[in-house]
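Write out the bound-state structure for adenosine-5'-triphosphate.
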Amino acid sequence: MAMKPRGAFVRSGKVKDIYKIDDNHLLFYFTDRVSAFDVVLPSTIPRKGEVLNKLSAYWFETLGVPHHMVALEGSNGMLVKTMKMIPVECVVRGYLYGSLFERFSKGEVSLPVERVLAAKLPQPYFDPTTKSEVKDEPITEAEIVREGRMTAAETAEVKNSTFAIYETMNRRAAAAGFILADLKLEFGRRDGRVILGDSIGPDEFRMWPADKYAPGKSQDSYDKQPVRDWLISVGYRDKLEKARKAGEPVPPPPLLPQDLIDLVSGRYIHIYETFTGKKL
Ligand SMILES: Nc1ncnc2c1ncn2[C@@H]1O[C@H](COP(=O)(O)OP(=O)(O)OP(=O)(O)O)[C@@H](O)[C@H]1O
Ligand SMILES: [Mg+2]
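---
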């Protein structure tokens, strides 16, 4: 059951609404909003918020790493410890896909693989981005340190932790018949330590059914990818990139077709149920 969140409203992120409970605690309310290419879409995906909330809780409880979660509150609420977030999105990729494939194709990154869409990388690749209000941009480890986002020691720690979490999650994915293609984590500072924050669900990763995996084509994806693919197919992505380059306002995103909404909702629920072994 969706509960009315308590606390004082702080702000709405793209997906979560944030409430302040006290000086040390926030309440995240996971909505059904969906964003793609850093734009919030006018359609919502039924039960997406509940999946992200409860699946995040599952990962926090079972990964065995320090995290910010205190407790679940109802179906869409999570009480967390307030942190000072590190302004870096810690992306790790096991496969040449999405924006990494595009950047690799343009020669912006060099990797020891052939230019084949969805090719498995010889080893997971740490591919951090900035956390931006407008659009997250790739950033190097050297830039992270130079810009004062993290110290060199913190950068190394967070990178190792990101790899370790990816490995754990990918092992569990493999056991469930999936491939964890990539993953985005956020860390924050709390009591002088760097700990895992934010959320971990199909908004934060790409999950491919292993039996359908084949390099050289776009993959069936149990996450937000069908939404991105549809926006690309109707030309919205191109329009958005052009507007951004020209410094123009974001063009209004289109409503998603109902069959796509149903497909994505079903896939989010499927991923939750597969990993937790529970019915949503
Ligand atoms: N423990 C925490 N304490 C404070 N902030 C947190 C914590 N965990 C995550 N956050 C931040 O809360 C926000 C979560 O909301 P959501 O994911 O919807 O926002 P977003 O749109 O991705 O981010 P933003 O609004 O910053 O661009 C993010 O900015 C995230 O970095
Ligand atoms: Mg977010």
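---
Helices lie at 48-63, 98-105, 141-146, 152-175, 225-233, 236-245, 258-276.
The chain has two domains: 8-81, 84-251.
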